[in-house]
Amino acid sequence: MTDQIYDVTIIGGGPAGMFAAFYCGLHELNAQLIESLPRLGGQVGALYPEKQVWDVAGMPGATGRELVASLKEQMAVAPVDTFLGETVKNVVKEDDGTFTITSEKRTSHSRAVIIALGNGAFTPRKLAVDGAEELEGAQLSYFVKRKADYAGQRVAVLGGGDSAIDIALMLEPVAKEVHLVHRRDQFRGLEHTVTQLKQSTVKLDTPYLPRALKLEDDQSVTLALKKMRSEDEAELNVDQLVVNYGFTSNNAALNEWSLDLAEERNLIKVDSMMETNVDNVYAIGDGVTYPGKVALIATGFGEAPVAVTALAKKLYPDKRMAMHSSSMGISK
Questions:
Q1: Theoretical Cys-Cys bridge with 29: which of 7, 40, 48, 128, CB 3.0 to 4.6 Å?
Q2: Rounded-to-integer distance, Cα 148 and Cα 202, Å
Q3: Domain 126-245 in CATH: superfamily?
Q4: What superfamily would CATH give domain 5-122+248-327?
Q5: What is the pLDDT of residues 209-240, one digit of tens each?
Q6: What residues contact residue 324 under an 8 Å CB cut-off, 6+ apart?
Q7: pLDDT for residue 158
Q8: How far is CA 159 from the centre of its chain?
C-alpha cells in the first residue's frame, strides 16, 4: 500500500486506455495505467495481432501488432506509471472524494478514474461439433497470431462477419488454399470488404453448416458439411481450421466494485464529457454508451482526450490546459 495519490487511474490497457494514458502525460497529470493482461494492447493485441485495422485515421491497413507498437511509442513521449498483470478487484469512493483501487498485488489511491475496459473479459464462441475441443491448439484455432504459420497450408475459415472475411483475405497470399464456410449465401461484412472477397481466390462454401470433424492419419481434418434447407452434404479436407464466430464478453468485474454505475445493455452510460453518474469516474471505449455511439477504435481515440481534458479541468480549474499537442512543445 502506498500513500501516494494519483491524479488519474486508467483501468484497461487497450488502445483507448493507452491513448488516454498518453494524454494524461501530455497534461502532466500524475497518472497510472493498470492492465490485467501481461502486455498492453487489450483485445486488439491479444486476439488480432496480424489483422489489418482500417478504422484508425492515418494508419491505413496497420496490423493490430503495429497499432499497439505505435501506441507504445506514443506513450513513451509522455510516460505514466504502468502496471501490467494486475486485475483490479475493487474501486471504492472514499468520504473525501478520492478513490481506493485494490488489485491482486497492491492498493493505490486516485482523485479520478477512467474505465477503459472495452467489453471486458472475452472468450471465443466455440465450434459446437464433436471433437473440436481435442483439435484446439493444433489443427483448430480461434484467432491468427502469425499468418506465417499458415504458409503453404489448406485453410478453412468458419464465419461470415467482418473478422472472418478479414482473416480469409489476410491468409490468401500465404496459404496454399483458403475456404470460407458460412451458413448463409450473404455475408455480414462491409460492402467494400465483401467485394474484395468476391474478387479474391478465396473459395466460398455457402450456405453450409459444419456437422462433424474427422482427424485423418496424415493429421489433416475432414469437415463434414450440411447444406442449409437441403439434404445435400459435402466434405472439405484441410490442414487448418480457423473459427471466427465472434466473441462473448462481459464486464462482470465491474459488478464486484463498490461503484454504482448506471448501465444500459451492460454498457456504462456516460455524458458528453465521458463522465459516469459517479463524480470523477469516466469511461471510454467499447464498454460505454451514449446517443450516437459508434463502437470503433477511432471513436475510443476521440473519447480519450475528451475525458482527460474534462477531468483535468475539474482537478485543476486554475491551471491553463494546452488543447493541442502542437502547443505542448513535444519532440522525439
A1: 7
A2: 17
A3: FAD/NAD(P)-binding domain (3.50.50.60)
A4: FAD/NAD(P)-binding domain (3.50.50.60)
A5: 999 999 999 999 999 999 999 999 999 999 99
A6: none
A7: 97
A8: 19
